[in-house]
Amino acid sequence: MTTLDFRPRVLVTKIGLDGHDRGSRIVAAACRDAGMEVIYTPPWQSIAAVVKLALEEDVDVVGISSLATDHLIVPKLMRALREAGLGHIVVVVGGIVPDNEEAMLLESGVREVFHPGSTMDEITTRIRAYAGEARRAGQNSPLAQETQP
Amino acid sequence: MANDASAASAAALSTMALAGDRRAIARLLTLFDDDGPGARDAAAAFAAKAGRARIVGVTGVPGSGKSSLVNALLGVWLGRGLQVAVVAVDPSSPITGGAVLGDRVRMGEHGSHPNVFIRSLSARGELGGLSRATRAAVDCFDAVGFDRVIVETVGTGQSETRIAALADTRVVVCPPGLGDAVQAIKAGTLEIADVLAVSKGDLPLAEQTAREMREMLGLRRATSEQAWKPRVVVVKALQPGGIEDLLSAIEAHEQAIGPGQRLRQAAAASSPAQGAAPAAMDAAAWRARLASLAERDGLCATLGISVLAGGPGRAEVAMTVDARHMNFNGGCHGGAIFALADSAFGLASNSHGPVAVGIDAHITFQAGVAAGDFLVARASEVHRTRKVAVYRIDVLRPAPGGADAAISSFTGTVYIKA
Amino acid sequence: MNKRLESPLTAAHAASDAKARWQREYGETIGADRKVTNVSGIAIQPLYGSDDWANYGQSDPLGYPGQPDYTRGIYATMHRGRTWTQRQLIGLGTPDDYNTRLLEIMARGATAVSLIPCNSVYRGYDMSSVEPELLGTCGVVVNNAEHMARCLEGVDVGEISCAMNDPSPFTLLAFMLVTAERRGIDWNKITGTSNQSDYISHFVANHMFYRLSLPGARRVLMDHITWCNEHVPRWNPMSVVGQHMQQAGATPAEAMAFTLATAVQNAEDCIARGMDPDHFLPRFTFFFDISMGFFEEVAKFRAGRRIWARLARERLGAKDPRSWRFKFHGQTSGVDLTRQQPLNNIARVTAQAMAGIFGGLQSLHTDSYDEVFSTPSEAGARIAVATQNILREEAHLTDVIDPLGGSFYVESLTDEMEERIVSIMKTIDDAGGMYKAVESGLVQRMIGASAMRFQQRVESGEQVIVGVNAYRADDDAATRPAVARPDAAAMQRHLDAFAAWKAERSPSSVNAALDGLTHAAEDEQRNVFGAVVDAARAGLTNEEICTRLRRDLGFGQPLAFV
Fold first, then answer.
1. What residues of chain A lie within 8 A of the CB of C205, using their CB?
2. Which domains can be identified in chain B, with CATH numbers?
């Protein structure tokens, strides 16, 4: 068993209209094999559903798989997460993202874009690091502050 | 100190959760999952406030139709304006400890309803922790005001018994076709069912499967003492009105057993054999108590011996004979029958609380046993003093109409430790 | 291994001497030899000889093209008589954009129409219901019969074969038929295919949305087949898809096995409905991915062709040889294309196309090199069509039928692929058939395992991907094309026009058409697709039709996964 002081909770999902999910399934399995808890959804999740899920499951990282153009609505997701008080969650995107659109994503708050050729090791290592960051940030976020004695 | 601050924040999170803050609930659930600072106190506080919600356990393997059934339940309850929480338990990889939790999205469109809260928990390979975290989650949802809590499990192992004990009413879902049902029986899953739901009720095979399951359960009814006789229903989850029979069965069970049942059972199950036996336990609580003892027994697990019923000085266990139990002559190994009887012996003699160890045992074999036979061992107390007790165990092969075949007689004596 | 017995004849001695000599010299020179297995898991030798091919030495070991079991091709003339159909899948932006691109491609040699709608259409939504950024990026936004008419302006659908890529409830075909009717074209003249109509593959691989539930989709597909057989007799309503499963990670052998099992499932459903196999099987077509495993793909197709002939005859009871013919469309696999050094994709597509041609396909789509980023650019689409023309005209690939036939390697590999495919099909049979195997998640789990294995092959370096895990270039970014997105202003005009059109419709005729759908859905004896065509004629949109049918026949939900 891996020794962690906490177990990262990661959401792997697809929003928008495209259904190709071979990559997201492999990433979900790789995160599981790396000892993380993965909430896995099929494609076509609405932004509202993703936000509700992220809140109820108290996830640390949200991984969006995008092969077509669905990443174009990720900025909407970022806004919705912040409005729900979930700004501490780290969001990453994986798949096919043209260079000019990658910049747009990073500006909207996405932490990293993984391109084809990234190995599972690389992805899971980064996600685990981001999860730790998110967990700590979550403890410092407004909700936690309200509860400090 | 950091721990004090975190524990204090756990308490404050509890206050916010009780006031309806969903994010606070979610944070607490993570705390319970990680068994973090303040978790146990917070859990105890919720347990004290719990008892209003109805808890339904739903167990079924992938493909059994469980998710459609849960979705249909959500539909009906949401339609009545109820608040429903779902705790979806998925097995985790025993090697890495990681898990993929995919159950929640199989529940369809109701997952997005504001009156629904779905949380996925992984088994983390370690039963005690999961059991504690699930119980804390259920109590939390109960205490903060959810009307119904569904505990969803996959049902592939002995851990299900422990989780199932959290529910007031336990539903086991099987697809039509006897193969899966027989597998479920062997896995001991059917032992825990209050309601057996045969899914995909629009298929012609469903009614037939339901009939055959009622017959199989009928054999058990003849041999065990229970306040509630498990009911078999057919479910058509995708059709409006298709879960009426299931809803009636659940409501009937709740009437028969009374609310807050699980809390009494939980108290019974969590107290170990050492110490005084709790007073005034009913049949279901006794069964749960003995089942939790049997769960710690390696040989019971190895041979597939499960608990049917129990009481003070009484125990009833069962086993289906398969390849594990056979001898070189193609019949059932006497040692397997001995083990079955001895298990009933051990449970009955330890049922009062103080540890009892066997010091003498005798067995006679009266009839042959073949592969596939379903055997029951019933232990009763013949005599008990402060230090010594004698038990008689009958092993029989139940048959319809009460014409049970007597297989074996076993007598045992125990020494009762301090 | 030399399977031949020791023979006293000198010639045989000499041959085995020569082989032993080669083996010795090979062993001495090769150094550290590597073990090679193809993606389907078959071990590949460095050399194949006559003793590797079981049928070698028999007279007519392969049969002839156009004769059962069709190993060498389903027609006597194959591509030499009539070249494969150049059927490029096109779809982008608004109907105006689609029509422009279509006419251009046809002017450059494409001989048939294939229409891919926007993902929003697959989801059962009209354009007014989705985020505008997502419209028209992967296909054309067609929501009603008028849009379809605009897409097909200048195309005589009575003469040119049209493929509509659209599964249950087949609204696009309904729009097309209404368009033909309004143009006075007799439906008896219309040819083409309900491409990718196979609902089972969509549930496995999530590539197109399964708008209806699994049993609902099954019902509508059967209605569709029955209705088309009667009203559009030259139309192929059944297109069984292997592409999605292979793209999701199934090995070529698995993809062929699952596809044939799906065809059997659909055929048995038709037979259960009382249809005569010889009536519907001649209109069954298949749709496959062609990956970079060159010889593996050739062998996969030849084996598949043989197996299908046998299945149709022995298992499904078809007596007419036309029912035994394995007709298929191949599409070069987009999964093999890379984002890095994208011009390399032209070479990849060429190799894939060749494998499909040698495999004996009836129709071919070649990907554009920039397809990995979005719908193809004009330049990319042009090169894709030119690739097919070059292979035909300059490489003379249509001069000889089944030119790889008789190759020791190809015949041995075809036999081995056949064995593997049949064995996988048995696993599906044991699970109760393809419908049950997909419902329970068995197929998805098998595919997931294969996908993981392939990922490991790539990460370990066993499978080299040029430009990705080897032969990398630093100036990569410079060669990546700028991605074209649909013109937002044009899409807005399309949205506005649609809204205006909707406002003009009579609510009573809309409601009557919706009720027609419900009546058909509730009555097993009525034909749901017939009701869809009526609804299209009455002016209902894709979303209206799908929403009503989802209500009545079940909303498509994902099945077990991971």
1. 19, 22
2. 1-49 (no CATH), 51-259 (3.40.50.300), 271-416 (3.10.129.10)
Rounded to the nearest 5 percent, the helix, strand and coil shares of chain B are 45, 25, 30
Give me C480's structure tokens. Answer: 């990546």
Taking the C-alpha atoms of residue B301 and residue B294, their distance in angstroms, rounded to an integer, is 8
The answer to whether residue B188 scores a pLDDT higher than 50 is yes
Q: Does any CB of chain A come closer than 8 Å to the CB of residue B111?
A: yes
Question: Residue B308 pLDDT > 90, yes or no?
Answer: no
Residues of B in contact with C554 (CB under 8 A): 238
CA–CA dist B111, B74 (Å, integer): 9
B231 vs B177 pLDDT, higher one = B231
Structural tokens at position B11: 């308490």
Cβ distance C482 to A26 less than 8 Å, yes or no, reads no
Q: Mapping DSSP to helix (H, G, I), strand (E, B) and coil, where does residue C297 land?
A: helix
Asked whether residue A2 is assigned to any structural domain, the reply reads: no
When scoring C557, C559, C561, C562 by the number of chain B Cβ atoms within 10 A, the one with the most, hence best to mutate, is C557
Residue C177 belongs to domain spanning = 78-460
Largest Cα–Cα separation, chain C: 91
- Provide the pairing of β-strand B54-59 with B84-90: unpaired
pLDDT of residue B276: 44
- Do C561 and C441 meet the contact criterion of CB atoms below 8 Å apart? yes
Q: Which two tokens stand for residue C112?
A: 């048939």
Name chain B contacts of C562, Cβ cutoff 8 Å. 100, 102
Instruction: Tell me which residues of chain B, numbers 200 to 259, contact chain C at a CB-CB cutoff of 8 Å.
Output: 238
Rg (CA), chain C: 25
Q: Which chains touch A (3 or more CB pairs under 8 A)?
A: B, C
Q: ipTM for the complex?
A: 0.89
Which of C118, C206, C248 has its CB closest to that of A42?
Answer: C206
Indicate the pairing of strand B148-153 with strand B314-320: unpaired
Q: Give the model confidence (pLDDT) of B347-373 as tens digits.
A: 999 998 888 999 999 999 999 999 888
User: Residues C297, C359: contact at Cβ < 8 Å?
Assistant: yes
Which amino acid is present at B338? F
